[in-house]
């Protein structure tokens, strides 16, 4: 079913993927990762179960032909003329995501707090730290990835959407992540069966975001994609509890259980205007959702210096 272009179904899909009471759940909150207290009422592996249930709800079909695909069918790149989060805030989507995902951000004067001049990306895809500097020869060091690639969406349901829905999809913060430029180019339009982030510790988050977005927009998965996602979600399950799927399952899904691979709930970003989160939380570092500071539990990566600049 095609979602209404002016009423994205992301919140409903997020509710399917998980809730804050889930054991070990982490919430991606405006570009930082904040631990949420574990609920004694939640069963072990509950977040995994929710993500797996959402995965199991996705139709399994073959790819439609790529015939007719064109980037322009998803609207002008980084359009602000959308009805998803951050739409019509006066800033292009690329700068919205840079402000959300970078730290130590410096903004260009006279742009009403919109254009990012510089900042630091703690890249979840590679586990490295990348210095961003706006400029003709440097901006491409940090690129914005469509978690579900536009071409992949085209072949798995988006051909039947109207233009407004495709434009929303291309600019939905839930489907976007700032990352290392060369890694984004390496991914191209791959799905979870053909490409995963090099940083293995982020893969569970990554595939859960795929499931969330596809459920929100009514997209399907191929059998290979379904099985690849299921294996990652099951990666941390105890041995002997569904870790090894049959060689050619129709809908293989592991049994419940705790483990290292926790389901992660990507939240809607940018619901507080141009800069992404309320002024109070920007000043204090307190998460507007949890009331907690990231503290020592913030996402940590090993500094490796600026990434070499490449052009696509």
TrEMBL record:
Organism: Mycobacterium talmoniae
Tree of life domain: Bacteria
Protein's recorded name: GmrSD restriction endonucleases C-terminal domain-containing protein
Ranges for domain GmrSD restriction endonucleases C-terminal: 92-231
Region listing for Disordered, in residue ranges: 173-194, 236-312
Composition skew (Basic residues), residue ranges: 290-300
């Amino acid at each position: 079913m095609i979602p209404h272009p002016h009423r994205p179904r992301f919140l409903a899909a997020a509710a399917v993927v998980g809730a804050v009471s889930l054991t070990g759940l982490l919430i991606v909150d405006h570009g930082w990762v904040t631990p949420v207290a574990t609920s004694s009422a939640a069963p072990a592996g509950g977040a995994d179960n929710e993500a797996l249930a959402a995965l199991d709800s996705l139709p399994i079909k073959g790819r439609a032909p790529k015939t007719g695909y064109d980037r322009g069918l998803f609207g002008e790149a980084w359009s602000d003329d959308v009805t998803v989060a951050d739409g019509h805030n006066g800033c292009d989507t690329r700068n919205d995501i840079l402000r959300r995902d970078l730290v130590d951000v410096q903004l260009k004067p006279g742009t009403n707090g919109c254009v990012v001049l510089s900042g630091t990306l703690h890249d979840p895809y590679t586990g490295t730290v990348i210095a961003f500097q706006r400029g003709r020869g440097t901006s491409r060091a940090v690129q914005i990835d469509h978690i579900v690639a536009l071409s992949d969406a085209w072949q798995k349901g988006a051909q039947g959407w109207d233009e407004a829905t495709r434009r929303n999809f291309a600019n939905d913060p839930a489907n976007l992540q700032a990352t290392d430029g060369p890694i984004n180019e390496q991914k191209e339009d791959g799905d979870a069966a053909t490409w995963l982030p090099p940083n293995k510790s982020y893969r569970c988050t990554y595939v859960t975001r795929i499931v969330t977005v596809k459920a929100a927009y009514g997209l399907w998965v191929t059998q290979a994609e379904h099985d690849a996602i299921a294996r990652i979600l099951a990666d941390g399950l105890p041995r002997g509890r569904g870790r090894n799927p049959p060689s050619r399952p129709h809908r293989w899904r592991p049994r419940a259980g705790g483990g290292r691979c926790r389901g992660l709930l990507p939240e809607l970003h940018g619901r507080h205007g141009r800069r992404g989160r309320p002024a109070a939380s920007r000043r204090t570092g307190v998460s507007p959702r949890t009331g907690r500071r990231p503290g020592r539990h913030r996402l940590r990566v090993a500094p490796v210096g600026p990434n070499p600049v490449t052009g696509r």
